[in-house]
Design goal:
Layout: E1 3-7, E2 14-19, E3 22-27, H1 34-51, E4 59-66, H2 72-83, E5 92-97, E6 106-113
Length: 116
């Protein structure tokens, strides 16, 4: 059994983990508003997926946690722009309200297929 891990700066978790052809990653990012944080978190997810041999066209499932559900429409604008119009690349997705730490407005958890 091989488990590959990509270390990040947060103590107690890795940026990405790959096992059995599946990549798991999570991201938050600083920023003054939900759009800025979402853009930065998605950029981190792009980098994490690339490091682990995947990309956003291989998304399987995504969970998005929002500190304030009234911000969902603004987050969705950034999400939909990042994801693109091709529905064949869209994952299953859940979006829920959650008390997030500090100034974090959005946390995105991704499961994707590895490309190799």
């Amino acid at each position: 059994m091989t488990i590959d891990r990509w270390q990040g700066s947060a103590k107690g978790r890795n940026r990405a983990v790959r096992h059995g052809g599946i990549v798991y990653t999570v991201a938050t990012a600083p920023g003054a508003d939900i759009r800025t944080q979402t853009r930065a978190a998605l950029a981190a997810i792009d980098a994490n997926l690339a490091d682990a041999g995947s990309d956003k066209t291989c998304l399987l499932s995504v969970q998005i946690f929002l500190a304030d559900l009234s911000q969902k429409a603004a987050m969705d604008e950034v999400w939909n722009d990042w994801l693109g119009p091709d529905w064949r690349n869209w994952p299953q997705r859940a979006c829920v309200g959650a008390p997030l730490a500090g100034d974090t407005l959005v946390e995105i958890v991704v499961t994707a297929a590895a490309k190799h």
